């Protein structure tokens, strides 16, 4: 549980640096070096968060939600009748008789 609090705190620090850089950017161009440093810190803390999540999930401290089990459905064909040949002709076919 402590690890989740640490990751949440790091994400809040990332957001703080992001919005602080936004405020510096809106104030003017004379503080562009300061804004660049703040954005660099944001990238650094984001990298630390990603590494922490990856490392702790590999160690087993963080458990992700399991993937749902995939179920397959099989369909069986129940009609066993044979199909008769169909004609595309619209003329009525003459009836044939067997003469013996």
Describe the structure.
This protein is an all-alpha fold. It has 2 helices and no strands. It has helices at 2-27, 32-59. Helix 1 packs antiparallel against helix 2. The model has no long low-confidence stretch (mean pLDDT 78).
The number of strands is: 0
Biggest sheet character: none
Number of helices: 2
- List low-confidence stretches: none
Mean pLDDT: 78
Output the structural class. Answer: mainly alpha
Give the helices and strands as they follow along the chain.
HH
Offer a few descriptive terms.
100 residues; mainly alpha; 2 helices
Task: State the gist of this model.
Helices cover 54% and strands 0% of the residues. By secondary structure, it is mainly α. Helix 1 (2-27) packs antiparallel against helix 2 (32-59).
How are the secondary structure elements laid out?
Elements: H1 2-27, H2 32-59
Helix pairs in contact: 1-2
